[in-house]
Amino acid sequence: MCENWIQPILDEAQSRGLERNAHAYPEVGGKIKIDGRDVLNFSSNDYLDLAHHRHVIDRSREALDKYGIGSTASRLVTGTLPIHEELEERLAKEKGYEAALVFGSGYLANAGTIPVLADRNDLIFADKLVHASMIDACKLSGAKLIRFAHNDVQDLEKRLEQYSTNTGRSLVITESVFSMDGDIAPLAEIAVLAEKHGAMLMVDEAHASGTFGPNGAGLIREHGLEGSVTVSMGTLSKALAGYGGFVACSSLLRKLLVSSSRAFIYTTAPPPAVIGGALGAMDVLEASPRLGNILQANADYFRSLLHEGGLDTLQSQSQIIPIVIGDNEKAVATSKLLREQGIIAAAIRPPTVPSGSARLRLSITLAHHVDDLECAAKAIVDAVKM
């Protein structure tokens, strides 16, 4: 097979500071050891420090012992186990919806849901900074995609009015906490607009689930918008520290997804141990409902330290804190310098973020104590200013 076209592409990526490599890490979490050295990991999504929580591990192990290592079939064949239904019922209750449906990943949840909500006869209005999985799902749907300026309600209204004569369905999609900027969408205002224009609304709560709202139920629940948001999407792989994705919705929509979502129908059901771990994480959230509040207070403090050092964290209002460097190579060099000082702060570059906005994306977790945050803030300020 001829592959002489590959190297030029790789060379071009390297010349632009966009070459990527997957580095193996010996552990997961906000604090890890590398070659016997303590390292602060600010690039983990284990926001609530649950990946090593004893109860979460025990529930995962119980499911492993009871059901084995895999579900061994798709959900519509023989892959649905009682533990899958238990998690879906619990997610629906926590999110404030009639039903929920679990997918193999957050990517699959978006890819499997959006093409069911809209097709080639319909319109999708998407915030310009929504996750790549949502954009890919829009392309899969065949619907006309209209992008509105990030978190700009006026621009969204302008777009909705521009296409008001559309005879097909309309869908508005956004995130509640944006994964790269850490800012929060004006959900209540967006919901009013969607309802005014007869549009469905889908909100990606991947980074808000577990970290905001009662018992970590997210920002939709915090603002009482369950009746206005058609689909609440979330993941099991960030604050819940495992793997998988889900949507919470009406019973009627769940039934339609089960019958027509290709990402649900044509993939093996998530492994029992993963589902057990998610249930364990939800147990912890129920027993300690203020974990998200503590996390956000720590993030506020860390932001204040960065601001005192003269750094700009954009509009961050969450545990995700960006520091825009701009130049790709400088972002990588700054990340490398911090790594040498025992701080992991991954450099995020295009196409993950817009061109010219390469950055350090910092994730605060409950593994980071106050003294960790203070030491890290000083090191980051010094590194960025070099």
Structure description:
The protein has helices at about 5-15, 55-65, 75-80, 80-95, 105-115, 130-140, 155-160, 185-195, 220, 250-260, 260-265, 270-285, 290-310, 330-340, 370-385; strands at about 30-35, 35-40, 100-105, 125, 145-150, 170-175, 200-205, 230-235, 245-250, 320-325, 345, 345-350, 360-365. It is built from 15 helices and 13 strands. The longest helix is centred in the last third of the chain and has 18 residues, at about 290-310. The strands form three sheets. The protein has a seven-stranded mixed β-sheet, with helices on both faces. It folds into two domains: about 25-45 and about 290-385, Aspartate Aminotransferase, domain 1 (Alpha-Beta Complex), CATH 3.90.1150.10; about 60-285, Type I PLP-dependent aspartate aminotransferase-like (Major domain) (Aspartate Aminotransferase, domain 2, 3-Layer(aba) Sandwich), CATH 3.40.640. α4 (about 80-95) runs parallel beside α12 and α13 (about 290-310) packs parallel to α15. It is an alpha/beta fold.
What is the compact description of this entry?
With 386 residues, the chain is α/β, with parallel strands linked by helices. It has 2 domains: 25-47 and 290-384, Aspartate Aminotransferase, domain 1 (Alpha-Beta Complex); 60-287, Type I PLP-dependent aspartate aminotransferase-like (Major domain) (Aspartate Aminotransferase, domain 2). It has 15 helices and 13 strands.
